[in-house]
Design goal:
With 139 residues, the protein is of the alpha/beta class. The chain has five helices and seven strands; from the N terminus they run αβαβαββαβαββ. A five-stranded parallel beta sheet has the order 1-6-5-2-4. The protein has a two-stranded antiparallel sheet with strand order 3-7. The relative contact order is 0.17.
């Protein structure tokens, strides 16, 4: 084996280690977010969500065009993309019920709110696409 062949093998090995380190980092970050979200926001079944959302602040974090196509009756639209600037519209002394289309954005919104001092945070398991209750749509 020549020196060039050894160098090529070493280069491939280093590239493989870098690739594995990046993949491990992504997996670690995803696991951290998953467990952090479970700790700061309670995931509710549709039945549990229905029991409490009328006594809480119901926030739809989807974009306005999604909201206009249909939303849970009584919900306010504060898109995740605007949440940082509109957070003052949400009271800290009342429960917050969040939902989005699938549950991903509402989880992120819950994490953002938690970092700003909100504590009674809940979101709909499966999001709006799993909702079977009353829906209001713009005509």
């Amino acid at each position: 084996m020549t020196i060039i062949e050894v160098a090529l093998l070493l280069e491939r090995g280093i590239t493989l280690y870098i690739l594995l380190a990046v993949i491990a980092g992504i997996i670690a970050y995803s696991l951290f977010n998953f467990f952090y979200q479970k700790r700061v926001i309670k995931t509710l079944s549709e039945e549990e969500f229905r029991e409490g959302y009328r006594k809480a602040q119901l926030i739809d974090v989807r974009e306005p065009n999604e909201f206009d196509q249909g939303h849970v009756l009584g919900a306010r639209n504060i898109p995740l993309s605007q949440l940082r600037t509109r957070m003052k519209e949400i009271r800290t002394d009342q429960p917050v019920y969040l939902y989005c289309q699938s549950g991903l954005r509402s989880g992120r919104a819950g994490q953002m709110l938690y970092r700003k001092g909100y504590r009674n945070l809940n979101h709909l398991q499966g999001g709006f696409k799993k909702w079977t209750g009353k829906v209001k749509a713009k005509k």
